[in-house]
Agmatinase (Absidia glauca), 385 residues
Amino acid sequence: MYFSILKTITFSGLVAMVAGHAGHEHEPVFGQMPIVSGPSDIPVNFDRPVLDKDVYMPSFAGISTFAHLPYLQCFEEGIVEDYDIAVIGAPYDIGVTFRTGARFGPSAIREGSKRIKGFNYEIKVNPFKSWAKLVDCGDIPFEPFDAEHAMGQIEAHAKYVLQRPPKPDQQVATPPRLVTLGGDHTILLPVLRAMHAAYKKPITVIHFDSHLDTWAPEIYNVKAKQSRFNHGNPLYHAAKEGLTTNGTSMHVGIRSSLYDEEDIQRDEALGFRMVKANDIFTMGVEGMVERIKEVIGPKEDTLLYLSIDIDVIDPSMAPATGTPESGGLLTRELKYILRGLNGYDIVGMDVVEVAPAYDTQAQLTSFLAADLIYEIMSMMVKRGE
Ligand SMILES: *[C@@H]1O[C@H](CO)[C@@H](O)[C@H](O)[C@H]1NC(C)=O
């Protein structure tokens, strides 16, 4: 497909050149173009398809959408095209407290996703060959100068993507699953506002992070109204606004130092439970999965949202992030824990805080972020419509 588009472009360019050069105004007639030679002396006749549509496409080629998914301009008014899983980028990073740069997260994750394809052997599904239509909507347009305004734009666009027309066999449309590429963790708040509006009830959030992200705005001693919203407190606001379930939402991987011991009490009162990074020594990964299932409750009753701050992983394996914390989970451990959630109704997910400027030349963090999304996409598709 890409090759034939390329051909078309090259051909139009050629036509323009020829027409321009010759200075006449006639539209060129397709069948009358001269036959020219391709690089391997294969005659190229513009009159008919030259190459097979299913020609091998190397994974390192092509324009970067997530996992080579088709790009759909989902934000344009009047789009009625149906989709089941929508990837959106939210390159917002004006809420960070330490290293900046997560605005380049979405493009880095897309670059890191190039090799993703095919059958997920652990989940037993190929998310790209299934009942589901997956699209990459590109990035949300927003003004990165004004936090409140930008958050409003992210919320509005996420809401827009979550609306879709009912399928032919449906009375009422169900929202598509949403995959958001951050951005710093502030974006979780506008996204959860949009999720809440779409489902009209609180969402159970499993928050994978080394930090609690429920710090009260007062702690930062900030004065401006907009400074109340930053990447250290999306879940504080979300819980206060009733967007998250109380007592069944939780954190996984916590290990950072706190401002105060009270941080834990505030967090609990906001409705969050936790499994710390250190718990892996006593519980093991299997035990962590069991504990998570105990907290979030049965599969039938749970609308699950997974928010992954890439700093949940040890910085040795995911260095490209704004506030790294030593002593984190290993990549295989997190993948195992995620797969333990297979069967739940995962209605949305994000990977945030990928700041590619701090990555290794080997793009470790970007590859990881993309792979984690692939695991969750697989479970979304496996679960069914
Ligand atoms: C969550 O429930 C507990 C216990 O009922 C309550 O004390 C707390 O205020 C609730 N938190 C929120 C944010 O509603």
Remarks:
- The CA atoms of residues 212 and 276 lie 10 Å apart.
- The pocket of 2-acetamido-2-deoxy-beta-D-glucopyranose is lined by residues 239, 246, 269-271 (CB under 6 Å).
- The mean pLDDT is 89.
- Strands lie at 36-37, 43-44, 85-90, 134-139, 177-182, 204-208, 249-254, 272-276, 303-309, 345-352.
